Amino acid sequence: MKTLSLIVLLIFLAGCGGYVVEIPTDEVEPANDWKDVELTDINTGNTFKVSDFKGKTVLLESFAVWCPTCLRQQKEMKKLPDLVHISLDTDPNEDEAKVKSHIERNDLDWYFAISPETMTQALIDEYGLGIVNAPSAPVILICEDQSTRFLKSGVKSAEELQKEVEVGC
User: Fold this and answer.
1) 27-63, pLDDT tens digit by residue?
2) Taking a C-beta distance cutoff of 8 angstroms, is the pair 116, 37 a contact?
3) How far apart are the C-alpha atoms of 32 and 41, rounded to whole Å?
4) What percentage of residues in the chain have a pLDDT greater than 70?
5) What element of type H or E holds 60?
6) Using CA of residue 43, residue 45, residue 49, residue 52, what is the dihedral sign?
7) pTM for the full model?
């Protein structure tokens, strides 16, 4: 309530004094192309970019370790070993240790990375806030030519994912 009162007071004073009070924001400049952002694989410590997988079909999911829906989606993705899987943690409150624990606890073995703020912002710019809404199980299909498609919300079965790959790439 104090913050709201302060903002109202600042706006009032700005209007009375004939000058504008700027309230600073912590906006993040998005990456030019999120596929070229360098990521660190939490399993191996090696760096990679989504663009490194040109010529392969990739399923990229945005997730958070606290999200049971995300884990259900990961279990479905695990049933498709012939595709490249990238799980991108977009929760700014999580760190590599939390993700590593999630990987080990659930026996997952593909690319996992923490999304840098620039990449998260670029994904939001391209796909909207749904891409960081972990409980909606957001998945992006990335085709061999690096074209992309944001798949429907909700957990997608392995069969549905496979069909999306066949239809969309």
Assistant:
1) 545 456 999 999 999 999 999 999 999 999 999 999 9
2) yes
3) 21
4) 81
5) strand 58-63
6) negative
7) 0.79
Q: Alpha carbon 60 to chain centroid distance?
A: 8
pLDDT tens-digit readout, 113-150: 999 999 999 999 999 999 999 999 999 999 999 999 99
Do the beta carbons of residue 141 and residue 61 sit within 8 Å? no
Helices (H) and strands (E) in the chain, counts: 5, 7
Residue 48's contacts (CB-CB under 8 Å, 6 or more residues apart) are 38, 39, 41, 111, 113
CATH topology of domain 28-168: Glutaredoxin (3.40.30)
Q: Tell the burial category of 87 from Cβ atoms under 10 Å away from its Cβ (0-12, 13-18, 19+).
A: buried
Q: How far apart are CA 106 and CA 130, in angstroms?
A: 25
Percent of the chain whose predicted confidence (pLDDT) is above 90? 80
CA distance 53 to 46: 14
Alpha-carbon gap, residue 83 to 163, rounded angstroms: 13
